[in-house]
Amino acid sequence: MSQVKSLDSSSLLDAPKKNLPYEHQIQAFVSDPVSENVLREVLDEFQSGNFSLTCQTCAQATQRLRRGSTPRILIIDVAGEDQPITCLVDLANMLEPNVKVLVIGDRQDANFYRQLTRGLGVAEYLYKPLNRSMVARFFGPFLTDGDYEPETTRGGRVLGVLSARGGSGGTTIAANLGFYLGEVARRHTLVLDADLYTGSVSVLLGTKTDGGLRTAFESPQRVDELFIERSAQRVGERCDVLSSQVDLSEIVSVASNGPAHLISIVKKKYNFIIMDIPNYSGDVSKSIIDICDQKVVILDPTLPALRDTLRIIAASRSNTQGVRPLIVLNKFGQPGSLSLSEVTNGLGRQPDVVVPFLPKILNEAEISGYPAVQGNNSFKSSIEILAQEAASVSMNEKSSGPGVIRRFMARFTARFEK
Ligand SMILES: Nc1ncnc2c1ncn2[C@@H]1O[C@H](COP(=O)(O)OP(=O)(O)OP(=O)(O)O)[C@@H](O)[C@H]1O
Ligand SMILES: [Mg+2]
Asked: Which of 20, 74, 167, 260 has its CA 20 to 30 Å from the CA of residue 111?
């Protein structure tokens, strides 16, 4: 028998009623400044100006809520509490029953999750370290007033990698992120090279290319799990590639439901689908971009790439996907290019991930057909951070959470101090 009272049970109707107007629709309390930064960014994105966020423990927050008005949504942090359930029950005793409660903590076990969501009526639970895309994805549906479409279908997560401008490094990042997720982090991963004519994912990952992807786009009725099994080229045990190399003289007529049907099939087999999207303006790219759960925009430190990144961000605001694109600054430190502060000023925010300019490592990898992320180098460190930010996959606790730019900068400048 459950010892805990449900957070939205009718027994809470005797909680003190307050007829005060809502102070803030959303009140959030987190116990550490790193999580506070992540949460602030997501709340700003979803409900700018309509929330309060304080760095306080669960007990302190409970005291404060006892005195103040009740929000519509409460985000509370129970990390570090010896008795998190007791804390939440105390909290339940004074909340109005219709408050949506989102909880952050440090326990990762399924039992705890079940106790909170089923036993206590908590709407959602996330454990630390938090990152922006994870918070947006799981808390996002509760933070909007109805215009956010949560990912409802079960299956793999689709990450679309998009170069702000040709040559910014989208293919390099997509191929290496795919390899990292599959072969290092051991998640079943498909890299889909949507550049049907001149794609080079298979070159970077040292595999063959066939007509599989073209057929899938043109004739969706032929695509099923067996078709994928036959067409996907194996890079390793858990990373596959789907690509095509269409003759430049030929015209591909992509069926309107071709890309979406393909994705619905591969989502059943793979945990992650990394799509290398050739350029924003093409028809195929446009239809593919809308399928992505998370867009990752790659820019190099040049003015044209900066300008086009802003245009891509603006374009994605106009669709219904609430999650903003992740921004990756690639080739950082390339001689004669923009500085980090210039890029940050231009974007109005820091890039989420910074990849240094590493021509030697990447040229050698390209020529030899092995992914650069296989080596133990600073390129791999950046891809690790990207995997954490875009896919919430972390093999290395040190690289998680914000502060990654600061850590990256420390490592980067250290190279010149030696
Ligand atoms: N961080 C980096 N440091 C140095 N060189 C890089 C870096 N990232 C990518 N490159 C190089 O830049 C070139 C272009 O990269 P890539 O093909 O990945 O770009 P792209 O944006 O996909 O280009 P396209 O528009 O042709 O699709 C390649 O030669 C690659 O090795
Ligand atoms: Mg490319």
From this structure: 74
